[in-house]
# Entry
Amino acid sequence: MILLNFFQNFWQFYTEVAFYLVLGFLIAGVLHFFFPEKIVREQLGKGNIWSVLKATIFGIPVPICSCGVIPVAQGMRRSGASKGASLSFMITTPQNGADSFLISYSLLGPIFAVARIVASFFTGVITGVLTNFLVKDDQEIETSKQTCNVENKRNLLSFFAYIQNELFGSIANSLVVGLVLAGLISWLVPPNFFQEYLSDNFLSMLIMVVVGIPLYVCSASSTPIAASLVFKGISPGAALVFLLTGPATNMVTISSVLKSYGKKALLIYLGSIAVVSIIFGYLLNLLLVDVSFVKIAAHHKGLTSWLVYLGIIALSLMFAIHYGKKLQEKFHKDKNSSDKMKLYISNMKCEHCKSGVLQALENVSGISDIQVDLRSKTASFTCSGNSHQEKVRKAITDAGFDLG
# Structure
């Protein structure tokens, strides 16, 4: 009976998000092919407000997670983008995406989904403008032709392979965790728990800032968690704060910003996210003060049953393909892998990162038997001579990754 109650709560969230999540992946795939990362970088000029605005707007629909966006932003810097534009992109990209917008619409309603986009836009713009004006941009910019070559090759991948392997593959594990946590919260937490024990909206938003900043969550998988908290009585503003801070910040991002942009830029980055999140959380609570928020979120949908079933089948197939491929890789490891050179890549955390490392290595001549393992954060290959090893190291670091 206990497991049955948990599964019922889990299945409720799964059926709610399936169609919208699959639709979001399709839209994100279209955006990727029409607006590849090369175009994004080329449109960003040096330190001015217009470059920050463009970076923020570009970042909103681009479907890259908080760790995957780090090498992209570093590539933008090497191509001539300002610190402010790069940081704006680093904020809005993991906070949003077509998939996360539609899953927000599905679980939390249109008002919340739009508020999430607007708040993210202002956060990105404010961070970028303050960084450009207050942080000296003295870094020498080197145009990297390799990154462009990687992207051209990446655009040749089939549409559905990109969606399955890079978009879905990058969040599959965290999406499962998010849905399980949402089911656990709905099952274990009593109704109106947060209204009774955490009725102070400002305090609840501060708590969400403290929890969200170091936590590693992606925008899509964190939405079911936020929805379950709202349904248990937490204010929609506090849930918005969690969805703005969690995806845009984690310990890897903090370390990367500190290393590449400096202490002052890091303080602006974290401070802007925290302050703007709380302001918009407060405004969202005012907007919904006389409205039953849960009622809006629960009854705005009008999907026919066949669309719901189609979404469930499609999402379940994507999970089956993803984990089936993982099992196949596990049972077909190279027996001679111990004879290969192996490098540890500390900031490789998702399928998008894995793809970037793999593509960088494939552009290095003189190496073979390339394997990139996300779980151990390693890249292994066969080569002859130290010169090839140095080429490999340079290719990985030029792509924006750190060797351990």
